[in-house]
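quick one
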Amino acid sequence: MTTMRFSEIRQLLIEEHRHIRSLAAAVSDAAHHVIGGDPAADATMREGLDRLERALGAHNVHEDTLLRDIVPTIDAWGKLRESLLTESHAHEHAALTASLGECRRSSDPHVTAAQVTALVTRMLGHMDAEEREILHPDILRDDVIAISGVSG
Ligand SMILES: [Fe+2]
Ligand SMILES: [Fe+2]
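structure w/ fe (ii) ion:
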């Protein structure tokens, strides 16, 4: 069980999203250079994928452990949120990890670059949805503890 406040959890996960978005932007940029015919960009793209894979792996573990305990307590819909989070969310994390692995499998720069573009779009969509549906300040509020723990 975590002793972090909801606002601290939200800030930590959003800060990790910010870092992942900047790594994803760098990989995406390198992929566009590859597609544009710059062979030197292949190494940059692959290094960027390594960094992105490490950051995403650590973030997904944080997210799974920090959110699993608190999401059921958030509101009346907490149970629904929890089931969405544990099933579709875990599935989406696995899909993103698999898609990252897929990007690295091909040694053809153009194949990898095309996969990177699809991966980054999906990854950004995943983080945007989380920030709307789970990590929004109106949902993950510190006063939620007081509301659910104290009657009246
Ligand atoms: Fe996630
Ligand atoms: Fe996330």
